[in-house]
Design brief:
Region (A): 1-338
Helix content: 25-40%
Region (C): 553-629
Low-confidence stretches: 1-7, 127-131
CATH class of the largest domain: Alpha Beta
Distance between the termini: 104 Å
Binding site for ATP: 42, 46, 87, 92, 100, 107-108, 130-135, 180, 338
Structural class: alpha+beta
Function: Molecular chaperone. Has ATPase activity.
Number of strands: 24
GO molecular function, one term: ATP-dependent protein folding chaperone
Largest sheet: 10 strands, mixed
Length: 629
């Protein structure tokens, strides 16, 4: 640091920053933080640290005791375009101002933290700052910053002043009491940060649960000014559960989730051991209106020593993103921005523990309710969030089998929801697979011809109509040693089960099948007879690769989908198929019938027709011929 003789005012000393401040301050102002309002969080955090520091030091030196009404004060002055943040904390000497504010990325708080090693745990204050750059966020909204500070036990005060362009000044100052004032000369494009309501909203968002009272100076109706408390000051998640009412829990849920419903489940616990943290989480009681269109990232609020840091730490996996709440820790190291957390082992342990606790809560609520016990309402929860939870079967190998165990499904067994365990309990003795059918909606699945042969043999089929249902069964593969199998790819399975009494004789299709194959060409992979149909004449199936429902979903999502022709299966007992076999045997052409059969099967399966006009023309011609016109 170099001093110049050309001091800006009497008694002032001008210094150069001891780092490449032009580049570093530009980084802080334009790249380090994504929101300008973050500056207030940083300055309030520093003020809280300084106040905690003084309280800690007063344990061994009564002369350093805090005033009775210690706190943090925010004073906007629109006329002078000044914003002042004041505290009653430990203050800084001339040397500390030069060292802490004159050197980028040096933190007095961090140095002070080294003193804590020998202190008793209960005496250690909660310190937030670690990297010494948060203060410089003030230059995002101010073209000049002044810091007036006085340490307890001395009458001497000093002022630090800078425009953030490479130099700062130090000069003697006066302050009636120990502590620090940070005075921001607000930029012309930052008027919003001179409005009390805007500042209060930032405090509520970022520092609502700081232990020290944060007051905001406001004008009253009579034109006078008064200081009003802007933060709640009570971290609900750190209070014992016995001291919190259900109403308080619900109110806090409304605040943190911006919701109006009553939470389905409240999880409040403190983890101790290798990694310590407190958590207060909520499972919503209702699904948000635009839930499926929202980001897939978890938005749990991460706090460090009561200070809100970010809601983008992904403390829960994407398939639990509907869970709301707060996690607060003193163990987590942060990177310089505090918004872009490093992937630290501590954070990984917190994520694992929080996920395990939430999964355990869901699993317990999914257990069957004994007679006389209150219904947990799990089916309602599943209707709201089941489509998202099932994403975990696809992407979470650690919890895949556990999720499958409590997941709920609709099936051909009845109107309600079932579990895989209940399905297995109803399986036929010779049944080796759990059969499922995927599609766009439950009603269409119930009417699908794919189910006819399974229904006739009394074989239950899961009916899966959520988009993710086209993906997870393949990833799960099996459950309780039972393989999951799509009915459309279960060719040959039905022959293993006793067939019901059939209506009519099966027609020999030895001649018809080659004729249909020739007419359809490469639009189908095969044409064959099937026992899966009872009422319908035809059905589409596939073998190997994605089934037809998966192919449709991938095409709708814009993904490149190679052409995979389906298999056309024929019901040899259906009157239409018998008639076509007879026509072919007489030497008549069945080419037009072949294309109509394929289109009928497509319509039944929810497939769009590639040539709707051609289908209409062929069908019209057949109707004309049938009526003799």
């Amino acid at each position: 640091m170099s001093e110049t003789a050309d001091a800006p005012k009497t008694g002032a000393e001008q210094h150069e920053f001891s780092a490449e401040v032009g580049r570093l301050l530009d980084l802080v102002v334009h790249a380090l933080y994504s929101e300008r309002e973050i500056f207030l969080r940083e300055l309030v955090a520093n003020a809280a640290d300084a106040t905690d520091k003084r309280r800690f030091e007063a344990l061994t030196d009564a002369a350093l005791a805090l005033p009775e009404k210690a706190g943090i004060r925010i004073v906007p002055d629109k006329d002078a375009r000044l914003l002042t943040i004041s505290d009653d904390g430990a203050g800084m000497s001339r040397e500390e101002l030069a060292s802490n504010l004159g050197t980028i990325a040096r933190s007095g708080t961090r140095a002070f933290g080294q003193k804590l090693d020998a202190a008793k745990p209960e005496d250690r204050p909660s310190l937030i700052g670690q990297f010494g750059v948060g203060f410089y966020a003030a230059f995002m909204v101010a073209d000049k910053v002044e810091v007036i500070s006085r340490k307890p036990g001395t009458d001497e005060a000093w002022e630090w002043s800078s425009d953030g362009k490479g130099a700062y000044t130090l000069s003697p100052a006066t302050r009636e009491t120990p502590g620090t004032d940070i005075i921001l000369h607000i930029k012309s494009d930052a008027d919003e940060f001179l409005d009390s309501w805007r500042l209060k909203s930032i405090v509520r968002k970022w520092a609502d649960h700081i232990a020290w009272p944060i007051t905001m100076r406001e004008k009253s109706e009579d034109g006078n000014t008064e200081d009003k408390v802007a933060n709640e000051g009570t971290a609900l998640w750190l209070k014992p559960k016995s001291e919190i009412t259900e109403e308080q829990y619900t109110d806090f849920y409304h605040h943190v989730a911006h919701a109006f419903d009553t939470p389905y489940a409240t999880l409040h616990w403190r983890a101790e051991g290798t990694t310590e943290f407190a958590a207060l989480l909520f499972v919503p009681g209702a699904r948000p209106f635009d839930f499926m269109e929202q980001s897939r990232e978890s938005k749990i609020h991460l706090h460090v020593r009561r200070m809100f840091i970010t809601d983008e730490a992904n403390l829960l996996p994407a398939w639990l993103r509907f869970v709301q709440g707060v996690v607060d820790t003193e163990d987590l190291p942060l990177n310089v921005s505090r918004e872009m957390l490093q992937s630290t082992p501590v954070l990984a342990r917190i994520r694992k523990a929080v996920t395990k606790r939430v999964v355990s809560e869901i699993r317990n609520r999914a257990k069957p309710v004994a007679e006389g016990e209150a219904d947990t309402g799990f089916d309602g929860f599943w209707e709201n969030f089941g489509p998202v939870v099932k994403e975990g079967i696809w992407e979470d190998s650690e919890h895949r089998q556990e999720i499958a165990g409590f997941a709920r499904f609709r099936s051909t067994h009845g109107e309600g929801l079932t579990t895989l365990d209940a399905y297995i309990g109803r399986m036929k003795p010779e049944q080796e697979s759990i059969y499922y059918l995927t599609g766009d909606n439950h009603e269409a699945l119930m009417a699908s011809p794919q189910l006819e042969g399974f229904r006739a043999r009394g074989i239950e089929v899961l009916l899966l109509s959520d988009p993710v249902d086209s993906f997870w069964p393949e990833r799960l593969h099996s459950y309780q040693d039972k393989t999951l199998k799509a009915v459309a790819q279960a060719h040959g399975d039905l022959e293993k089960f006793e067939a019901p009494e059939e209506d009519g004789e099966a027609t020999d299709l030895a001649g018809l099948i080659p004729a249909l194959k020739e007419a359809l060409g490469d639009t189908v992979a095969d044409v064959r007879s099937t026992v899966r149909l009872k009422q319908s004449a035809v059905v589409l199936t596939s073998e190997g690769g994605p089934d037809l429902a998966m192919q449709r979903l991938m095409r709708r999502s814009g993904q490149a989908m190679p052409s995979m022709p389906p298999i056309l299966e024929l019901n040899p007992r259906h009157p239409l198929i018998r008639d076509l076999a007879a026509r072919q045997a007489r030497g008549e052409s069945v080419a037009d019938f072949a294309h109509v059969l394929l289109d009928i099967a497509r319509v039944q399966d929810g497939e769009p027709l590639p040539d709707a006009a051609g289908f209409a023309q062929r069908l019209t011609g057949m109707l004309v011929a049938a009526t003799g016109q």
